[in-house]
Amino acid sequence: MDYPKSVPSVGLVNGQFVDEDVVAATPGSLIPAAWGNGVTQEILNVVQAAGMTPSEASNNQLLAALRSASLFTTAAQFDSGRSVATTEFVQRALGSYASSRGIAGAAQLTVADVGCSIGLGGNAAYTVTLPDAAAVPSGATISLHCRNSAAVTVASKTGTQISPQGAYLASIVMNSGESANFVRESGVWVMYGTAGIKYSAAFGAQMNSPGYQRLPSGLIMQWVVGGSDANGNMTLSLPVRFPSSILGGIANEANPAGWSASNATVWALDVGASTTSVVVARVRNIDATGIKPSPGISGRVLVWGY
Description:
Blueprint: H1 33-49, H2 61-66, H3 87-93, E1 99-103, E2 107-108, E3 116-120, E4 126-129, E5 141-146, E6 152-155, E7 162-164, E8 171-174, E9 179-185, E10 188-192, E11 205-206, E12 211-214, E13 220-227, E14 233-237, E15 246-253, E16 264-269, E17 278-287, E18 290-293, E19 298-305
Parallel strand pairs: 1-3, 2-4, 3-5, 4-6, 7-10
Antiparallel strand pairs: 5-9, 6-8, 9-10, 11-12, 12-13, 13-19, 14-17, 15-19, 16-17, 17-18
């Protein structure tokens, strides 16, 4: 739309309409029917696009049309086109979470949960499955925080799509008080938050016997169980090798049910004979005849080092 500059003798001054000046004897500009109809139709197009019926008696229909939901619709969730963004679209895409909800049982999350903050409640263990990473765009985020008194398993829908601390897993476990943000990166759900700490190499662990626990400071605690030989000595391989040295440890009887005051055993960790991969403990029996080696005694050792 423009001023009717192409119409002969339209009488525009500096490209705009002017009124007739009787004193100066200058005519006013012409408003051609085609131009007047064009301007009116431009306005009517907007009013009608908003689903409104044009009314001669109303002077605010254009404003009402521009403010209507019919013209300014919120684009689809992952729309990346050049259409005008409504505040609803911006709120959903940036800054605050798009929405929040709670889960208290097994659930399959969907693309609609992208951008949501989801609380995991309840009192029993269950599994929450993430959407297939291939079905959501890069940067899609789902936030989970666990309030369940039991553990909640967060599973991948397809294969090993969860990556906490660089590994690729089919599922992870969240305990009460832990949080996790799952961000779709490079075709997988990369996990950030406190729930991922236990999957870090700095917190590596083997929670059985034998077992170990690493700490970020470099300290490693290890525990092993075995039996004493004919000389009352117990030599056991450690689950992992200490990178530098053993700092200390303790040993005791693993089956104290048969202990009695008249037949007690004394345990000692032999740090000097132990290495970074093997621990040595000695057990002696004390009775009325004195102190002597105790063969075949079940014992356990806890050692720490770095």
